[in-house]
Amino acid sequence: xxxxxxxxxxxxxxxxxxxxxxxxxxxxxxxxxxxxxxxxxxxxxxxxxxxxxxxxxxxxxxxxxxxxxxxxxxxxxxxxxxxxxxxxxxxxxxxxxxxxxxxxxxxxxxxxxxxxxxxxxxxxxxxxxxxxxxxxxxxxxxxxxxxxxxxxxxxxxxxxxxxxxxxxxxxxxxxxxxxxxxxxxxxxxxxxxxxxxxxxxxxxxxxxxxxxxxxxxxxxxxxxxxxxxxxxxxxxxxxxxxxxxxxxxxxxxxxxxxxxxxxxxxxxxxxxxxxxxxxxxxxxxxxxxxxxxxxxxxxxxxxxxxxxxxxxxxxxxxxxxxxxxxxxx
Length: 329
Fold this sequence. Notes:
Layout: E1 3-7, H1 13-26, E2 31-35, H2 41-47, E3 53-56, H3 63-66, E4 74-76, H4 87-92, E5 96-98, H5 105-120, H6 123-131, E6 152-156, H7 160-169, E7 175-179, H8 188-191, E8 194-196, H9 199-205, E9 208-211, H10 225-230, E10 236-239, H11 248-256, E11 262-265, E12 285-287, H12 296-314
Parallel strand pairs: 1-2, 1-3, 3-4, 4-5, 6-7, 6-9, 7-8, 9-10, 10-11, 11-12
Helix pairs in contact: 1-12, 5-7
């Protein structure tokens, strides 16, 4: 019977729900245990000495722990991002790391669409005016609201999430451009009504630029003053992947100087952010607390995918969505 360790502190309802989902879907032939990742390495080693796989949630599997776990074959993530674990180090120990196989792609793409619409329609300002009892006084003085219809949308990163964004946009009569360093299966972009272009062209012509890339050395800070300077002054920037993909200080400057018209962010460089972060007081920015992927449906898909991959590992079959350590640079 394979043993799975869920690495999480069950102090919130969200953590407990994932724990419940694991137990509900694991079946009687899988042993699921919970391990508090805030305990000492020695305590983690003792608790995980017999585990075949680990599922960390807002946690990691330290190498100093993993090297003492002889049965550990797989670290299975419930997220698309893998920057929280040492993929290369675990690989040297013979431990594979897999992400969630796109199980949160619909959730994140819908959140990206929500941010686009909210920035364009100045949703937070209009809500505040109603809540404060001023109704339309003040908001009528704002710049005219904007439609997505007919706009050019540039998607940077055309993996599981980026492609779902393209699907969501299909009903908005947009021109969809994308840029990705990985070549797609022939015909896949035409199927989604998207056109591959180089990055600078995408930045120059897009009305909305949305990023959906993993965080690594090549994407860290990829959106900075140069890139914002290439964008239209009427364009908006959306980030629902990882905060360090954009240079936050340079994004703030671009917004303050009118280099771009707005931003919708689910992620920031430091989380939780400082309450005095200028982005939080800017009328042109909307920030949500890194929760784009946390829908009930997405959580369930992630857990089901994780358990199926763990079964593959237990049966020595090829695992899915394994992160290639040679691609980490």
